[in-house]
Amino acid sequence: MTRSAQTVPEGQALVLLTVGDTAHLVTAQHPTTAPLHVPAARIAQQAGLPSSELAGRRFTITRLTEDDADGFTLLNDPRV
After folding, report:
1. Is 3 domain-assigned?
2. Which residues of 49-75 are buried (b: 16+ CB within 10 A; e: fewer)?
């Protein structure tokens, strides 16, 4: 596996990037080649940070399905 092929543990999500109002997530079920698309505003509201700061951040998630993720909490919050 190459370094660019991000692996994410169960119960976590990595925001690759945001495009418009959509966050592109890598999860245990969604590889970098087929990321999950989730509203960036929902992640930002649940995690307590601006949508513009989501890219590159890792989150724990409480629910993950093939089409959605929910219950985002920021991991390794530098503000704490």
Report:
1. no
2. bebeebeebebebeebeeeebeebebe
pLDDT tens-place string over residues 14-64: 999 999 999 999 999 999 999 999 999 999 999 999 999 999 999 999 999
CA atoms within 13 A on the CB side of 75: 13
pTM: 0.88
Angle at 67 between CA 20 and CA 46, to 5 degrees: 60
Domain membership of residue 54 (yes or no) is yes
Task: Tell me if 63 sits within 8 A of 70, measured CB to CB.
Answer: yes
